[in-house]
Amino acid sequence: MDFEGKWEKRWHPLRQEWVVYAAHRNTRPWNTGTQQVTKPDTPAYDPACYLCPGNARVHGVRNPDYQGVYVFDNDHPVVGLHAPAVTEGSGLYQRSPATGIARVICYDPRHNLTLADLETVQVTNVFSAWRQQMREMLAHSSVRYVLLFENKGELCGVSNPHPHGQLYATDFVFRHCEQHLQAARDHRMATGTNLFAEIIENELSDGRRIVAENSGAVAFVPFFARYAYETMVFPKRRHATLISLTDSELYDLAEVFQELVRRYDRLFGFSFPYVMSVQQAPVDGADYPDYHLHLSLLPPLRQPGLIKHLAGPEIGGGNFMADTLPEEKAAELLKGF
């Protein structure tokens, strides 16, 4: 069997680790782990949904009759400004209050839509709400980092299909951001150049993995993708966080993001699940001129109906083993749009 171009390892510059690709294994038979994914017949309004307009949430608070984006403090927060005090440890075993802010961001009042279904201007309104939330977080001295994310689809564990995402503002910096910052520092020291700029330049120069682009933003399956249909969406001009994006840059970013998720849906024939996160620099008062904010989309499916389970290499060993090549997945996303 000819394995050339199918079996190799690639360096992940942002995580500073190897990813192994063994695309020749992708045709092996599967007897377990398959999932039947169908498009549910979902109404525009669900009287039992705690996110729909006018409905009561778990503690009795009733949602307003909102028409656009609606943001509220999470009724089941992971972190909070009034988190209970704990006896703080010292030395190896430390603990402290889970201080922060947790919010829910409803994208649209209609229960049966996703960001792929909305008009681009409505998706831009969601991105604008993210930017406004970021600006609000600056007023809280305890907040050092803000994670905006969406778990889309049952395969990603979402508890409610109403179109929404979440915000976690914490008094610590999330691990992925710490990794990115260290990788950028190391790259700057070794080469004198910006790591993110080189990644974008390499992707634009190669071109094979670009799946959506306009004048202000670009989306691609990265050379070092760990998940089969993993993508990254960058504004072309470098910003540390959403806070400094102009309205036109925000629109361009939303437009490219929406083209990408529509490509997902078109390729698979149903509303494609993913975990999306907005990767940004900390908001702790320091400057991070080398950081380049971007959206990261990590879909759980390696094929239609087949989940990418994290197992021995990923959980046990800490490095990803991929059964597909990024170039192949980008080519699939580019077809028939």
What does this structure look like?
With 337 residues, this protein is of the alpha+beta class. The protein has helices at 120-137, 175-191, 195-206, 247-268, 312-317, 326-334; strands spanning 7-12, 17-22, 70-73, 100-106, 145-152, 164-170, 210-213, 217-220, 231-235, 274-279, 294-298, 301-303, 306-307, 321-322. The strands form three sheets. A nine-stranded antiparallel sheet has the order 3-4-6-5-10-11-9-8-7, sandwiched between helices. A hairpin with a 2-residue loop joins strand 12 and strand 13 (306-307). Mean pLDDT is 92; it is low at 28-32.
Strand elements, count? 14
**Which strand order spans the largest sheet, edge to edge or round the barrel?**
3-4-6-5-10-11-9-8-7
Outline type: globular
Estimated share of beta-strand residues: 15-25%
Whole-number tally of structural domains? 1
Number of helices: 6
CATH architecture term: 2-Layer Sandwich
What Rg do the Cα atoms give? 21 Å
Q: State the name of the first-level CATH class.
A: Alpha Beta
The CATH superfamily bears the name HIT-like
Major beta sheet, specifics? 9 strands, antiparallel
- Low-confidence stretches are 28-32
Q: What is the chain-wise order of helices and strands?
A: EEEEHEEHHEEEHEEEEHEH
Reported by name, the CATH topology is HIT family, subunit A
**What does the average pLDDT come to?**
92
Put the structure in a nutshell.
With 337 residues, the chain is α+β, with helices and mostly antiparallel strands. The protein is built from six helices and 14 strands. It is globular and about 60 Å long.
